[in-house]
Amino acid sequence: MGSWLRKNLYFALLWRILVGVLPAVAAAMLLPARWMAVVAGLLIALWTAASARRLVTRILEQIEPAASSVADLERQLPEAPVRQLEPLMRALLSSRRQVEQQLEASAETRRKLEALLDSMQDAVTSVDRAGRIVWANVSMQRLVAQLSGSVRPGYSLVQTIRSPQVLECVKEALEHRSYVEVRPAPMPMGRTYAVSAAPMPEGGAVVVMQDITQVEQVERTQREFVANVSHELRTPLTSISGYVETLLEDGRAAPSLTPLVREFLEAIYKSARRMSRLTDDLLAMARVDSGEQKVRPQPVAVAAVLREVRSAVAGLTRERRGVLEMVEIPDLTVIADMDAIVQVFSNLIENAFNYGVSPGPAQTADAAGVDASFAGQAPQDARVVVSAQAEPGREEVRFCVQDFGPGIASEHLDRLFERFYRVDKTRSRESGGTGLGLAIAKHLVEAQRGRIWVESELGRGSRFCFTLPCPSQMPAE
Amino acid sequence: MIRIKFQQSLDELKERLLVMAGLVEQAIQRATEAYTSRDYSLCEQVRNSEPAINRMELEIDQLALDLLAMEHPLAVDLRFILAVIHINVDLERMGDQAAGIAMRVLDLGRQPKVDLPVDIPRLAQLASAMVRKSLQAFIEGDADLAQSVLMLDDQVDEINREAFHSLTTLIKGQPDSAPQALDTLIISRNLERIGDHATNIAEDVIFWVRGADVRHHVVSV
After folding, report:
1. Which of A54, A100, A192, A196 could bridge A181 with an S-S bond, Cβ 3.0-4.6 Å?
2. How many other C-beta atoms can be found within 10 angstroms of the C-beta atom of residue B151?
3. Prediction ipTM score
4. Closest C-alpha to A349, from A390, A389, A308
């Protein structure tokens, strides 16, 4: 900046000399008597110009270091060389104080943020848009040190963490500029983490890793416990049900059953069947949790699915003396695992028969017979409608199971698919529900890339719907 | 400009090798966890990771050969590329060893459970630590850290020898348990081989950094 000013001043002085002095020289040529005076004037003009140039240069040389040291807080600002420059120096000093304050505020914010992040139990690191580590908190440094490594700022993330799940999570967040979560992400030394990566506005991403080793361990133990207990319970239950059923159905085995004994046996049979259903559901849930139940979706016709469903729930419909209607069956194909989808329908239809009808008077064993007795309050004319139709605007088919019962209050709708959640505990016990049917249905639908939800209105009934993708949505292998 | 591009290519080579190393480390971890927890779904995951490891081996080899052919590297750069080519092979073999462990664990699952006098988790822990340390030495170009990996190999060999002795004795005394003992013996051998490959990686790092060939306990500069 200084040299540019200096150069322009030289040009200004030269221009003045040419404009002011050359006409005087020309006049002197015409008038020789005044020639000496002209030369003297010329010399004075040159001396004045040189003095002025020296003065301006000196001032500029004084300003230059002052201007350049405004942002350099380590250096003192020099004194003003001439009185006229004092306002300029004051302005520079004021700018410098503002810069100092802003830098201090920025450093303070950074210190607070770092202290906050360092106090977190979760390991946090940030990467730039090229995936290089910018910063890592103390937990991250500790985690990497446990793995015989060290955090390497300025280098690619893979030089610090090699877990394929973590790298994939960060790569996806950087490429798609979206929040990505991976759980569980196994790490060396038997640790398990939940990893999330969130994109930052100016590019790059923040990665948070939460140690969930203990949580996973507890969940695994719970799942194993439930699976083992259910398995152990099933064997004696089968014997109990079998013997009681024989006693009740075959008069030859117990020809002289008194009404009281028959009543007690029916009570035993009813409870055993209920426990059997509960253990079946618990085992199904355990299979789903452990990944043992594999879902293998493939193209199947909607009509074929519904035919299979009708056949699978025929016994249940008869048992509940219900009416199962199937309407709007489109000529479409969906991507579904037939076994899984039949299980989803069975759970939804059983749910509709259990809760989707107004409770009627309890039936006596004599009236309902053995098969119907465990249904508890089996109502008259329980009607369930199953429908299927193409979802408008989406390449999906929507299946619905509708009942015409009392409906469900809106406060329950969000929690209906949770395990063991019951709207009416007393009624659930009476109807023999386990509280797992809808949770299993939700898991199976989502495993087939579908969605499940419920619509209900008090006094008008409920509609459980789920979607399944059409073949054009099938992911390429 | 050409030099910067070459340096970027070397960085890319290193990063790709580390991505592959991550897959291999996870395969080893899953295979050994499958042994301890008898979680057979982990065995399937180990086998599923093999194609990705093999594909990465080919890609890294191609990139390394391209750099050799086009850039004519010298001195430390040449040694780095040669080390990467060797480490690439070692990592792929480690992946094969992990798949071997997974297969043996599946086989063990088909047989009655027998208590065997072998500390496989300890062996797996040591072998994994060797892999981690040798890779860290590669990341940091730390020849001293690489040297420490060579010491650990003796411990792994010792545990493997003990396992061999205990299991052969058991087979003589309890022939009914021979299938389980043989499976466990092979797992022990797989882990010992993983330790050997980690040692090879450490030796490659020493060669890259110091220019010294320390294979077969012979030092030549």
Report:
1. A196
2. 11
3. 0.85
4. A308
